[in-house]
Amino acid sequence: MARAPSNASAASSGPPRTSVDVAVNVNGDVELLRLDNRVTLLDALRDELGLTGTKKGCDQGACGACTVLLDGKRVLSCLTLAAQCDGREVTTVEGLMHDGTLHPVQEAFIRHDAFQCGYCTPGQVMSAVALLKEGRATSDEEIREFMSGNICRCGAYPNIVAAIREVAGNGGA
Amino acid sequence: MSVTEQRALLGAGIDRVDGPVKVTGAAPYPSDVRYPDMAHAALVGSTVAAGRVSQIDSAAARAQPGVLMVITHENAPTLRPGAAPPFAGPTPPALQDDRVHHYGQYVAVVVANTPQQAASAARLVSVSYEPDEPLLAIDDARGELLRDPWGFDSQRGDVAAGMAAAEVRLEARFTTSENTNNPLGLFSTVAAWDGDTVIVHDVTQFTSNVQASIAKAFELPESAVRVIVPYVGGGFGAGLRVWPHTLLTVLAARLLRRPVKTVLTRPQMFTGVGHRANTVQTVKLGAMRDGELTAIDHESLQTVAVNDDNVEPVASGSASSYACANASTRDLQRRLNIPVPGSMRAPGEAQGNFALECALDELSYELGIDPLQLRLRNYAEVQPASGLPWSSKAQRECFAVGAERFGWFGRNPEVGSMQERGWRVGYGLAGAAYGWWQARTEARVTVYGDGSAFVRSAATDIGTGTYTVMKQLSAELLGLELRQVRFDLGDSDMPYSTQSGGSGLTGALGNAINVACNGLIEKLLALVADDDDSPLQGCSLEDVVARDGGIYRREHGGGAGSDAGEGYGEILARHGVADLTVDGESVPPDPGQTGMALTGAFGAKFVEVRVDPDLGLLRVARVTSVIDGGRILNEKLARSQILGATVGGIGQAIFEETVTDPGTGRIANATFGDYLVAVNADVPELDVVFVGEPDRNTPIGTKGIGEVGLVGTAAAIANAVYHATGKRLRSLPITLDQLM
Fold first, then answer.
1. Which of A114, B60, B71, B616 has its CA 20 to 30 A from that of B257?
2. Is ipTM > 0.85 here?
3. B299-315, pLDDT tens digit by residue?
4. Does residue B707 have an active-site annotation?
5. B552: which strand partners?
6. Which run of H or E residues covers position B374?
7. What confidence tens digit (pLDDT) does each residue in B257-301 have?
8. DSSP-assigned states of every residue in B306-351
């Protein structure tokens, strides 16, 4: 009755595979996870690893609250399946501090009051860290453009720009 | 220009005390809460806007791996309605019968071991409906029309006579779209029962009301319900009510005997937690050639749900905005099959001010009078409705300071006359006010033997800075250093607090803390009343001042012993008391006693826009906001309130519009990809300045500033667009197609 398997991955004649094993480096530690294959990177961070600093604002890739770095690049963790992260490096807001000291972007956000309710803040901070690294913070206009994937409903945008401008002016982070 | 009085620890722009936990992701929001053995709920929404559920089949959902329970109206236990917050009726509990009142109304709850299992199984719940034709349009005469639904309509003088006497008359119709609050934090509830008591982590701006509502719904004493929300994740009014998902989560946890978490989806945030009602408004103005207003007539029709009540006076603000002997304001509501509207930042004024301030701008061009001069010509020196003096009003300074900073008088008043690099440039302004509101609130203060203090209340900090300014205020009132004061909130086990809303919390809570701190000092003075070793023996509250970590006699002429006093720790130690706790309660001031009108914040908005005449592109280039907010407790955070509200106003003016499908009642743009809000690139540098004096109605002298910054933004933008292009746009949002 069964068709001949055409390759190894389709060899099973049982129910479809619903879990996946992932080894992912999160903030410097390798985590071994067995996950429902529908689990996003965002849900894996929050629900499996307890790293709740990364926020879910829409789960549709439209608000930026879930921004993390994947192999050093900004990604929306709600649109990234955890299964895609096997063997890769993830940095979350929890991974920014060094030896108990805030990252310069985090310090600048506090100094410039660049947040209010704080919910979008981890995503804003991660985007800011990345765009500074990418050299995309050379003018206010450029900062505004490259930070426009991160919605702040409290409307702290002018203070976010001021914070990033200051860090950029100090030679980046 | 006067400067707001500042005392030692106040006014200073200290950094937000919750900054470090927010920038590191450590601040716990309700959606971050986890319990061992916690289950996850997903909600199924109605796909019709009116009718009945004829059949509901959850067998396929129940058969999915990990699914624990499906609750529908067929198996849900009876829930009683919750408690009513200040500006609305109690939200009707869900799943109590088969009737459908709006699209997205919850018809089932699926509970499973993981959120993925719950969400996946929720899609397999099969619901059949007997649909009715939904009433969805504000002008649908079949929808019940409510006149003067809250008794706020106002009438003074003789509007018809004022119109007849006018040399110039203007009538204009305005519409404002439905807006959705859309805080970034998805509304979430985690409920964990222990016997007949329950802990509920809930996104709310009003813990005490959630506690009361759950107690009512589940017929429990309030002491059996504890609501915790140290960090909210934004609300903008959406968190003022107790929504069905909260009660359903508590219900699921009770039935399942396990903790349950529900996190709404972004589309559910459009149908389940309120929105700003759309309006159709008519403003009629009569004026003499010199600009004197002889009549103001403002009527507003807004939408309301068929199964709910919402208090949102839109027109009534026009009764107290300007001096005019003849004024009439009327609010109407049309009941429709729409998701429940509620408060959204600056409710009522956001829509009503747009209509009045645009109409005044139009009138100014008719009269050939500068828009600023027209407003000053009709400046209300006293509260026009009551005739009482304002407890504080510096709006004249708002206009003067704003005009100076913005360079208002540098504009060429001729329409379409200003251009730069192919863009048409326009200047517009608007007056702004946000009405006074306050409600009973309590605070508790404890002083310890080491001289430190702990102050708390069941209030919330929605991002406005309550943690920070209440810590500053407490330290000031007790004469302590900031580091000696701990302030906490967000827990209904703490003393009762009103909502963080209506621009009323800082006044309500600040005055409660003032009462508590004074009460504490009086209690300490009573302790030393017969104490021969105390330099404070025989002193009453009026004789002393709190400073330097204790209580000191006021200096009266520098006589012997006039500067004597002692620290809190010394008093407690000598009397063998480990700590001392006092509660304080604030109640709103009574104009009958103070002889002054209850007075909120005032402002003036100046806006420069750029319009591309070929493509219709509209950019906000500059905004100057000048605000009379009474005494400012922390200028850095206060400025952020005005910045954020201005950004909200830009969104209201040119982006935000919740679109309802006219046939089905479905929200057609219920995502952040489709419902546009202002993003970073839409917002220029924003200029904010505060003027005015401490308000005289309460001891701490503050006025609420969380909402006034939004008011006037849309009108000033629309007025600037007219100046740039000659197009008088009376419908929000102003979109590109209107400008081409």
1. B60
2. yes
3. 999 999 999 999 999 99
4. yes
5. B545, B565
6. helix B371-377
7. 999 999 999 999 999 999 999 999 999 999 999 999 999 999 999
8. TT--B---SSGGGGTTS--S-EEEEEEEEEESSPPP---SSTTHHH
